[in-house]
Amino acid sequence: MKKYSLVLMAMFAFALVFSSCQNNELEELENPDDSINTNVPSDSVFGVIVNVKMEVGTIVYDSASTNITLTSWDKNNVVHQKEISISTANNKVYLVKTHQKFQFKFQKWGITQQLTFTKEQIKEGDVISFGGKSNQKQLNSEESFMEAGGVSRPYSKVNYQYNENGLVKQIDYFQAETSTDVLKFSFKMVYSYEAGLLKKVDYSDAENKSFGTSTLTYNSNGKVAAIQETKNGQTVNATFKYAITNNVENIMAEYTFDNGNKMNYTIKYKNGNIVEDVATGSSGAESGKYEYDSNINPYAQMNLYSLFLTNLSKNNNIKLDKVFSGSIPSNVPYKFEYKYDANGYPTEFEKSFKTYTSNAHLFKIKTLYKY
């Protein structure tokens, strides 16, 4: 019995040593020693760069965060595996030098790719690129609900129709009656194109009576140069100019109203998103700073009309900081929550609103998307 116990103890000790060796290698992979100020954090590992570039329709998403499955085999052919989060701010992956083979597996928005390298095929500083291309999904409808005081009620509904080229040709808007919560048709927008560019939008009410039009003209680069919008007898003329400074596109707009008043509006557009804007007019001023996630904004794919170019951003807004002077709004959004499908499109969006002055929560709007 004593001899058997000694054998067991020896086997247990060997298991501890073997496990410790594996853990040490994994710790080197997960927590490299950054005490040495070089490109390689320690003598036992080396770093490679992982880039992700996705094309959805005509828009490139090169800042999409994702997880990479890294599998490596050591000199004893023991498998080591871990999940690594990749983003533009953190895209360096450390590999153990003594391992003999490395496999990177990428899965994002329905695309799967796998790359395998021997230790001779990969070295410090190499760039490993993943990505793919997919068609844009068509948003068929969205339905919104307002939640206030713990009660959720129907709020609105929007239906989209497309032409043979996949461009939006009509949008129908429905609004809930306050007394009955029944959604009733409110108005529609009909889109007209020339050479793939939106040229005109016609507005009709619930009785199919026209109450306005918007006409657009473009510069030589295919960007909107001017818009004339007439609704219910009131006309606004807008002109747009563009300039690029330090990789930031500045869009300068001027709006002229029927009464002679003017408003200037400046947008800073960076990496496919509106990051700042400032509007100044006779009644006051408004400025905003915006942050985004790395998923797909379906409206950016649809070339939706907006007098204030609000549908430019390719990603979804998750934070804003607004400052007002003069006219103060009764409420402002302060919280943004999304749920996404496997292709990176939002299926559910909750936007919470508060008072601007006291920060007290007022209500939230939940929107459900169908594609």
Plain-language structure description:
This is YD repeat-containing protein. It comes from Arcicella rosea. This protein has 2 domains: 2-134, Immunoglobulin-like (Sandwich), CATH 2.60.40; 141-370, Porin (Beta Barrel). 8% of the residues lie in helices and 58% in strands. The chain contains 1 helix and 24 strands. It has one helix spanning 2-30, and strands at residues 45-56, 59-61, 66-73, 79-86, 92-96, 101-108, 111-118, 127-134, 141-148, 151-162, 168-176, 183-194, 197-205, 210-218, 224-231, 234-245, 248-257, 262-270, 273-281, 284-292, 317-326, 332-340, 346-354, 361-370. The protein starts with a helix and ends with a strand.
Q: Characteristics of this structure?
A:
371 residues; mainly beta; Porin; 1 helix; elongated; YD repeat-containing protein; signal
Topology record:
Layout: H1 2-30, E1 45-56, E2 59-61, E3 66-73, E4 79-86, E5 92-96, E6 101-108, E7 111-118, E8 127-134, E9 141-148, E10 151-162, E11 168-176, E12 183-194, E13 197-205, E14 210-218, E15 224-231, E16 234-245, E17 248-257, E18 262-270, E19 273-281, E20 284-292, E21 317-326, E22 332-340, E23 346-354, E24 361-370
Parallel strand pairs: 1-8
Antiparallel strand pairs: 1-2, 1-5, 3-4, 3-6, 6-7, 9-10, 9-24, 10-11, 11-12, 12-13, 13-14, 14-15, 15-16, 16-17, 17-18, 18-19, 19-20, 20-21, 22-23, 23-24
CATH topology of the largest domain: Porin
Low-confidence stretches: 1-40
Strand content: over 45%
Helix and strand composition category: mainly beta
Question: How many β-strand runs?
Answer: 24
Radius of gyration over all CA atoms, rounded: 28 Å
Element pattern in H and E: HEEEEEEEEEEEEEEEEEEEEEEEE
CATH class of the largest domain: Mainly Beta
How many domain regions? 2
- The CATH architecture of the largest domain can be named as Beta Barrel
Our count of helices gives 1
- Shape descriptor reads elongated
Which strand order spans the largest sheet, edge to edge or round the barrel?
21-20-19-18-17-16-15-14-13-12-11-10-9-24-23-22
